[in-house]
Amino acid sequence: MPQQLDDANRGPHAVHVHPHKKLGKHRTVIEAALPLINDLIDDDNITRVDFGKMATAPGIAYEPRFEYTTTKRYLHLLLVDKTAAQGFTVSVKDPVLAEESIEHIKTRWGSITGQNKLRVV
Fold first, then answer.
1. How far is CA 35 from its chain centroid?
2. 76-114, pLDDT tens digit by residue?
């Protein structure tokens, strides 16, 4: 089920989403990542998505990319689009399926940004 936005203004590159059982307390996300967040919420292997800090740089264009590290049952992600970046921590049920989740995220983020750049940190 797609996340719904509330009317809280979070600036030109961010949106604020309604609570969900799989989301942490922090609910401000970069706008470009919203379709990916919807996919992660619908994924049965994903148990929780925590939004991290955001960064924007007015007048500067970032290089869209996706970076990640894995530790046991956690995927630590950095999603960067042309105008903003944000870190995420994703918890998975089955660590064996974590690589499958990474491939899904990489493909989905590539379709959102138009680039399939992946960096393993």
1. 9
2. 988 888 888 999 999 999 888 888 888 878 777 776 666
SS3 4: coil
Is residue 8 a contact partner of residue 53, using CB atoms and an 8 Å limit? Answer: no
The domains of the chain are located at 14-120
Query: Which residues lie below 8 Å from residue 111, measured CB to CB, with a gap of 6+?
Result: none
Model confidence at 118, pLDDT cuts 50, 70, 90, reads very low
Beta carbons of 90 and 74 less than 8 angstroms apart? yes
Q: In a 10 Å sphere around its CB, with 0-12 CB exposed, 13-18 middle and 19+ buried, how is residue 89 labelled?
A: middle
User: What CA–CA distance (Å, rounded) separates 22 from 47?
Assistant: 6
CA dist 112 and 115 (Å) reads 8
Instruction: Please state whether 72 falls in left (phi above 0), alpha (psi between -120 and 50) or beta.
Output: left
Say if pTM beats, i.e. exceeds, 0.85.
no
